[in-house]
Amino acid sequence: MAPAQRSELLIRLQATRRHTEHLAAPLSPEDQALQSMPDASPTKWHQAHTTWFFETLVLRPWARDYQVFDARFAQLFNSYYESLGPRHPRPQRGLLSRPALSEIQAYRAHVDRALVDMVLQADADSWAQARPLLELGLQHEQQHQELILSDILHAFSLNPLAPAYRAPEHPAQVPTSYGATTMQWLTHPGGLVNVGAPADGFSFDNEGPRHAVQLTGFEIASRLVNCGEFAAFIEDGGYRKAGLWLADGWALAQAQGWQQPSYWRKHADGSWRVFGLAGEQALDPQAPVMQLSFYEAAAYAEWAGARLPTEFEWEAAAADLSGLSQLDDQAWQWTHSAYHPYPGFRPWAGAVGEYNGKFMVGQVVLRGGSLATPRGHARPSYRNFFPPHVRWQFSGLRLARDLSDSQGKT
To answer: pLDDT tens for residues 83-102?
Structure first.
């Protein structure tokens, strides 16, 4: 029998690996080969890459007598790790008709068997080295589970047949937080607050070190901006008023003809419909708006007489305020914080040091989590990040404002 620590990790690892396959199950082999743009990846590539991660960083260095499934896969399924050798170009992942999906499924099964053997049989020294990498691999796969959904949604959005990934939710499954129709302003007094991941439990390297920051008092919205409110922004000419927009965002919106969120479609009768995982559905005015770029989120906030919170305001509010809804189960929330290292940040040692640190330029932080985030994966200190123009993720916004701006407002 394995010690409790090994058993617990093995149970979570196996559940995570199964969930990836569950997410892929509704998709045909043709669906799983689609790459709709350079920023997205085929579903079968996600399945192979997460398997390569375990094989390369856990099994090859720490599993006794491990036999590599196919040495050629190292180049095909390495994502961005310069220290781990050459990589197939990211924009060309959709050209990989070979290996077939069935071979990738066999690859996953091969690695899964080896992971079980290693967890149960590794000696104490190997286990001490491998355990944090196993945890990282598990968390890494959960990130790719969300990408599987956002990437296939983008691909399906380009299909004139508007295929649905899944059936519409039964009314009983609609989140109860949709009922939070009245937005309240919650006050945080500011002051010296601690931010960043605590020492116990898993966190990515970019979530630390934990440190103190000084905040000025602020107000933050109790819920996310919903589709009905964003529709009012559109009808009021929000996409036509340059004064609401940051300069880069306005230039991009004009160049690309943005007139609404990327998956919104206006029908001849003037009604809005929204393309989502359940296909094209009538706009639900209570549902949080999503698939917004940072630029659209910031423009809406300006129109609403508010602003986006900083990432530290968001984290302090999540820790200290009651009454906040939709924190991590609907849409990632753009902040007005650049993705920079915390004071004292040091990347992890070895190849995994490339995981986060080298992307700390030109990106904006999002906080929270989305309807596609695996439950239990997010936490208040989690720092998601994307370039400001990205509008294909499950990203929305929560408003904030300075206390001085709230006088006389409700």
So the answer is: 999 999 999 999 999 999 99
